[in-house]
Amino acid sequence: MCCNFGMDVDNFNPKILYTFEKRFEPSHKSKVHSHDFMSIIYIMSGNCTYMINNIPYKVKKGDILVLNPGVCHGKYTIDGSGIHEFHAGFENFKVNDLPNNNIINDNITPVIPYTNYDDDLLQCFNDIILEQNKNESGSELILKTLGMKLLVILLRVIYQNNSIKEKGCINFETYDRSTIVNAITEFINTNYMHDLSLEIISQNMYLSPAYISKLFKEETGDSPINYLIKIRLSKAKDFLTYNRLTIKEAAHAVGYDDAYHFSKLFKKHYGYPPSCLKYKAV
Asked: Which domain of life is it from (predicted)?
């Protein structure tokens, strides 16, 4: 007998490796790492930025991170905010035609926003935490049952909820143009210091690169990449003028590893090289 997710119900016996909740203080930063099993992280409160396979994702309360084996991830808290998370790890399961212990395709975003199953997930998380705190006879069996329930709800979220879109896709009827552009500019303003590209921006926005470029150009008169360059140069100018950073330090602070390339962009935009700011600031 098979269920809707390509699993043999009679032999469905995933191994729950761990479940725990943890609070992370403001200014927390975790090293980028990966696991050889599938893990999920539910944001119970707060917000932070996760780097997942070198792509920054700004996450908040209600978001679910679904991380296949081998997916590199790490986080840092932002805006002085702490974060409260629930973590779980699973192995020994097979979904559809995916590799063992994988739960999503590569073309699905690893960060899933609030869904219609959010209450079910939260209740399951709370039941797991409550049972762990009891530590009574039979708790291990109950926790295993709750872990299986959690995994099935998660599969429902991923494969049955209409709001979960493949990368490059979005339900245009639910978003107006200005909302999308505002989301793009906010993402760039927050992450300009990272290694951003049109592809990375599109993956985070769940939109195709071509659509992002067209919409952004029509609404602002500029391309997303030109907007990114202007933000970086403006920030760098402030760093050079008020923070007295060296050209190399300022370039690195705004996302440029090559100081020479940065200097060329700066001169083209402002009409003078960044070295002139040393004298203008005196």
From this structure: Bacteria
